[in-house]
């Protein structure tokens, strides 16, 4: 059973994601949170496998929360959710160790597939129309497996375009 934590400040989104994911075989929403501080408390209690995290939340946003979670629980996979393409926020969340990024308009099947993909440790396919070149470049850069706390990403202008997330 894949344990998923849903983090979003909008109740309708939280409840919708919970209903959809709980209807999928082998996936269980173990908890929900309204902000980054609640996410950290839920992680301590529930130890989820995957977090679906809104990038913009009150008290602590998804970027800062991703950084803290990955420093303390590097095995937890984080998928960033947003209603819009916000390059700086997305880039920073990926830099801090998020496994991928989805727009909230994604289909139920794509959401389920993303959860199963990152849970299994495979590369998450990125919708080609939702990423900037800078975010794609970060996803294509190798990330050291020995430490997810801090790492540097060097992107050269000759780097090829790879629409996948290396986890």
Provide an overview of this structure.
38% of the residues lie in helices and 19% in strands. It is globular. The model is unreliable at 130-138 and 140-167 (pLDDT under 50). β3, α3 and β4 form a beta-alpha-beta unit. A 5-stranded parallel sheet has the order 2-1-3-4-5, sandwiched between helices. The two termini are 20 Å apart. The chain is an alpha/beta fold and 167 residues long. α2 (36-46) packs parallel to α3 (62-72) and α3 packs parallel to α4.
Describe the structure concisely.
This protein has 167 residues and is α/β, with parallel strands linked by helices. It is 38% helix and 19% strand. The longest helix is centred in the first third of the chain and has 12 residues.
Pick out its properties.
167 residues; alpha/beta; globular; disordered C terminus
Mean pLDDT: 80
Structure annotation, total helices: 6
Q: Helix amount, in percent?
A: 25-40%
Proportion of β residues? Answer: 15-25%
Over all CA atoms, what is the radius of gyration?
A: 15 Å
Structural class: alpha/beta
The helix/strand series, from N terminus to C terminus, equals: EHEHEHEHEHEHE
Number of strands: 7
Order the strands across the largest sheet as they lie in space.
2-1-3-4-5
Largest sheet: 5 strands, parallel
Low-confidence stretches: 130-138, 140-167
Shape: globular
Distance between the termini: 20 Å
Annotate the secondary structure layout.
Elements: E1 2-7, H1 11-22, E2 27-33, H2 36-46, E3 50-54, H3 62-72, E4 77-82, H4 87-95, E5 100-103, H5 108-119, E6 124-125, H6 133-140, E7 164-165
Parallel strand pairs: 1-2, 1-3, 3-4, 4-5
Antiparallel strand pairs: 6-7
Helix pairs in contact: 2-3, 3-4, 4-6
């Amino acid at each position: 059973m894949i344990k998923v934590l849903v983090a979003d400040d909008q109740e309708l989104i939280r409840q919708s994601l919970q209903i959809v994911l709980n209807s999928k075989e082998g996936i269980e929403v173990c908890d929900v949170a309204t902000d980054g501080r609640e996410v950290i408390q839920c992680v301590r209690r529930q130890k989820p496998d995957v977090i679906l995290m809104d990038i913009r939340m009150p008290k602590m946003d998804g970027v800062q929360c991703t950084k803290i979670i990955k420093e303390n629980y590097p095995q937890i996979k984080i998928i960033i959710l947003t209603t819009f393409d916000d390059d700086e926020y997305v880039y920073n969340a990926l830099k801090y160790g998020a496994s991928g990024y989805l727009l909230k308009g994604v289909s139920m099947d794509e959401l389920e597939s993303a959860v199963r993909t990152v849970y299994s440790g495979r590369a998450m396919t990125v919708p080609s129309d939702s990423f900037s070149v800078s975010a794609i470049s970060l996803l294509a850069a190798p990330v050291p497996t020995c430490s997810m706390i801090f790492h540097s990403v060097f992107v050269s202008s000759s780097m090829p375009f790879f629409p996948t997330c290396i986890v």
